[in-house]
Amino acid sequence: MNAFYNDAIRFIYVTIKVKWTVSTDLLRNARYNKGTAFTKDERSKFGLTSRLPPVVETLEQQLQRSYDQYKRLGDSLQKHVYLSDVFDTNQTLFYALVTRHLPEMYPIIYTPTESQAIKQYSKIYRYPNGCYLDIEHNDPEYMKEQFAEFGKPGDIQYIVITDSEGILGIGDQGIGGILISVAKGHLMTLCSGLDPNRFLPIVLDVGTNNKDHREDPKYLGLRKDRVHGEEYGRFLENVIHSVKETFPNAFIHFEDFGRSDAKPVLDRYSPKLPCFNDDIQGTGVVTLAAIFSAIRLTKSKLNEQKFVIVGAGTAGVGIADRIVSSMVKEGITREEARDKIYLLDKQGLILDKHADRATEGQKPYLKKGSVFADQSSSDEVDLETTVSTVHPTALIGVSGQAGIFSENIVREMSKHTKQPIIFPLSNPTDLMEAKPSDLNEWTDGKGLIASGSPVPPVKRNGKDYYISQCNNAFIYPSVGVAAVLSECKTLTEEMLSSAADGLASTPRSLFKSDDSLLPDLTNVREVSRHVKFAILKQALAENNCADYVPREDEALKKWIKQTEWNAEYAEYE
Ligand SMILES: NC(=O)C1=CN([C@@H]2O[C@H](COP(=O)(O)OP(=O)(O)OC[C@H]3O[C@@H](n4cnc5c(N)ncnc54)[C@H](O)[C@@H]3O)[C@@H](O)[C@H]2O)C=CC1
Ligand SMILES: CC(=O)C(=O)O
Ligand SMILES: [Mg+2]
């Protein structure tokens, strides 16, 4: 449906809804609540006068009070709970507050604090956070009824679904996974201007194998073994079918599915409907964009790099596949490209002898064990041996294993590469494969480093080294909103590739410093416009775009900006 038409419907809906609500509902509805910012006129019209203190405030005054309250809180989790309360009571205030203090609040509403909140979900629970679907109600008619509670067919544009098996780096979190869907939605709005009222967070409760949760008397999810296999497949199929029946235009974003389901689920649905797996595709695109920046600094080409990727799971295979696609675009064969990528998992380098237990995603990257036979004293090839044999130019960690990029390994890598590219991308902060400050030290300041969670600049020898954050949050909001705006039939490989190009070619003025690998968070909305432009141009070129999307460049840029949702109070009549 045309986005302008959607906006018109929304305006009518706002007006009617307000006329119909009684005063209490208006104050309790986070979408419409303005708190002390309701004008005298609105207070009188809607019977709010005695329900509010007499002073009428501006959003600016409310922001100052909220920020003062936030600052007084001691730890990050308390701050997270406070911001969730603001979100649950006054959505406009929440987004205005976080937008103003984005670099400070981003680690509170997202990684690393989000991991703590998810782990403690059943303890800190106060208010329902989205749509909870459990496998004991595996019935499409029931599901459609439930979805209908969240809106009419055109209302929901973007849906994040998690099955909570592979949350951030902290694994199976059962019902608490709803908060990753919520957080991903917040960032869609903050970073790329998605209307938060068009967003639906979903958690699929298929049981949990997390003992701590199962044994916690406060745990709010199903206390049963996690369901896999056919029953899981049927449940997911019913969910997707019911979502598409209820919200035909919604784009589906899969988040933090477990390793065994993430890729098969993406492969099943991506050829049929507009959908995306953030951990596979988002991580692949953002990491490729950071690699492009790094090789610009080393004045080399992508095809000249050798990659060691540690953690051959959802993110690791996603990164490998994205690098391969890009190398192929630069003119080498897929086989040649795969030869330049060394994937390691728990047992070490993935070798031909592991073929039987390799995942489908790992299989194209198996290396010949015979090549390493002389180098390794055991049957397996560990990270140290891989690095000393292969001499990689880039080392990427998505293993969730803290500290496995040891000093020996990094110093060995640095002997053979002038400016080693090293990305410890695991979240949260305490699971990074190495501390950026150590990496800086071990590479004598030459390492081109990016981390998955935000870290402060490294100070060494009187110099500040800014560490870019390489997190899929820097790309999926742009991909998601561009997909919504285009109403693409499917999200194509070429659209994803244009997202990486768009991010890498963002004007340097939007980066913190000349050697930053990714743009600065404070400029995220502007960066997102560049990326959305690149993706929409590609969608137009593929004829995979709705008719109302402007064809001419300047008109398209203007339109992209106009479609953004901003945290401002509406005037109610
Ligand atoms: N920065 C970013 O944007 C993103 C970061 N991540 C992070 O990457 C990590 C992995 O996430 P997923 O790929 O979704 O999980 P996953 O569970 O699918 O993959 C992790 C892989 O690491 C392997 N592994 C475990 N111990 C290892 C070891 N000692 N050496 C090598 N491999 C080992 C596991 O067997 C598994 O295959 C998490 O910490 C997650 O937070 C994930 C997605 C995006
Ligand atoms: C960033 C992200 O998606 C993850 O760590 O799973
Ligand atoms: Mg994730």
From TrEMBL:
The keyword Chaperone does not apply. Keywords: Metal-binding, NAD, Oxidoreductase. CDD domains: NAD_bind_1_malic_enz. Its cofactor is Mg(2+); Mn(2+). Belongs to the malic enzymes family. PROSITE patterns: MALIC_ENZYMES. The active site is at 110 (proton donor), 184 (proton acceptor). Residues 87-270 form the Malic enzyme N-terminal domain. The keyword Chloroplast does not apply. It comes from Schizosaccharomyces cryophilus (strain OY26 / ATCC MYA-4695 / CBS 11777 / NBRC 106824 / NRRL Y48691). It comes from the Eukaryota. This is Malic enzyme. A divalent metal cation binds at residues 255-256, 279. GO terms for cellular component: cytosol; mitochondrion. InterPro entries: Aminoacid_DH-like_N_sf, Malic_enzyme_CS, Malic_N_dom, Malic_N_dom_sf, Malic_NAD-bd, Malic_OxRdtase, NAD(P)-bd_dom_sf. (S)-malate binds at residues 427, 471. GO terms for molecular function: malate dehydrogenase (decarboxylating) (NAD+) activity; metal ion binding; NAD binding. SUPFAM superfamilies: Aminoacid dehydrogenase-like, N-terminal domain (SSF53223), NAD(P)-binding Rossmann-fold domains (SSF51735). One of its GO terms (biological process) is malate metabolic process. Divalent metal cations. Prefers magnesium or manganese. Residues 280-540 form the Malic enzyme NAD-binding domain.
